[in-house]
Fold this sequence. Notes:
Blueprint: E1 2-7, E2 10-15, E3 19-23, E4 32-41, E5 46-47, E6 51-62, E7 66-72, E8 77-83, E9 86-94
Amino acid sequence: MQALIEISDKQYLVKAGDKIFVPKQKAAAGDVIEVKTLMQVNQADSAMKAGTATVKVLDHVRDETIVVFRKKRRKRFQKRNGHRQHMTQVEVLSL
């Protein structure tokens, strides 16, 4: 069974035991939090049943570097910058 959950205004299709990266949460590593379930999907049918899913916070990490490069042609202007987003790794315990 899969479920569509919503964390920090983003939606993820998960099943029990999945480990996903979500935007940084205000919970410490090892905490168990409950998130809103928007939809539950079975093999035969899907139901728009709202409920809760429990997820466990595993770790706080930073995402891969995204390179931001700006250039103005014929003006000798180039600017290179990098950005790493803060993420939280969570494991879905139950739906």
